[in-house]
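Section 5.1 Outputs to date
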Amino acid sequence: MNKLLAILAVISNISSSVNAGMGLYSNCGTPNQNSNSLDCKGCGTTSAAIGFFVVSPSPNCKVRDCTVDPGDNLNGWMCVSCSQSVTPVTAYGIGKKFLQGNACTNACSNGYVVDYNYICQPVQGADVPCGTANQAGGNASSCNGCGTTRIQNYFQPSAANNCKVINCFNYPSYLNSWMCKSCYGNPVAHQIYQQGQFFNGSVCVASCPIDQVPDQNNVCQPILGADVGCGTTNQAGGQATDCQGCGANSTIQALFKVSATPSCDVIDCTANPGANLNGWMCKSCNGNPVANAVYSAGKLFSVNTCVATCPVGYSADINNICQLIPVPGADVACGTAGTTGGKATDCKGCGTNATIQALFTPSATPNCEVIDCTANPGANLNGWMCKSCNGVTKAHTAYAAGKFFSVTACVASCSNDQSADSNNICQANSIRSPYASSNLLTLAFTMLLLFLIN
């Protein structure tokens, strides 16, 4: 009997020794519907660390022997499992449940909170470039660029022109894109930051919605341009019927989509339009924070670029294109006189066809004047145009020679055998032939002889 009691005592001592070395349950095992966990793969990031654990009732695992030094394999799950061990090695310690740095601790330092792996993590966010650069170097001088005054209070200056969120763990009363970017990826960040580093109006998102891209401040912005009035009006209201007025060809028109009648807008301001760029595109995309750089200069179109204002001597037309400012010609008397005075009723006498007549506008009756002497008249040039535009400042070179028209050009005077008609056109003079005069004398003499004979 005494021998049996002695054996039981030895077994009890051995059992106590074994239990004293094992850790407590840690909830890092792979759940199993029955009995012990399937494995302890959640208890470490390496096979060496996982090897320190043994499965226990699902979903738990525990350190198999807290008297063994884990060395560089030490992690948070080991700290918590061995925190109540009677005889832990120095790496562990009674009550030291958390891992901070490379040692177990009973509480995380100020500015740290424990994550789900029992690791103390900093609550600060990552650096984001919204700070004001300090000319003397070192930390940013302020975080004024990180948001409104209230939001700036969530940040602290860090290196160069950077700032970072002070505490990503807490729920913020205010939220913006810089906060999303600073706190996203922080393992102890509040759930509001876990969705992504971009900001879509009110929430953090991993990617922007369709038809939006993030700007330089990580804010999701629409790639659509603003409404511009180049669409075809829909008489029934609603959206414009088409965008045919938005470009000179179907390729350019296809870069627009209909919006509220009579408007259209550029479909994608982030794309480079290349040679398709025009005034409507400049107006629609200028000011869009994610627009291609070609739109940044302004809302008007001059030659081949967008501009803020037209060059001197130019003004924008209804298509937002910079055009030479029209320079009217002098009054010329080719208009139809108005019966009640005032302006001429029309300029039908100023040209042989409607195209030429349209280059004139009525002025004091019965006069008209060329609408724009800076424009090249081409094949439409005539005597009235020469007379109206010759001598006008900035007039096209076609008018420089003079006020009369000869063959195809303006001239200062008609040639010796020509004179100007009522339309300022040089015409050949009407000169009687000497042969015609001689024939007339012969005829007269013959008639006189016949009369005398009879």
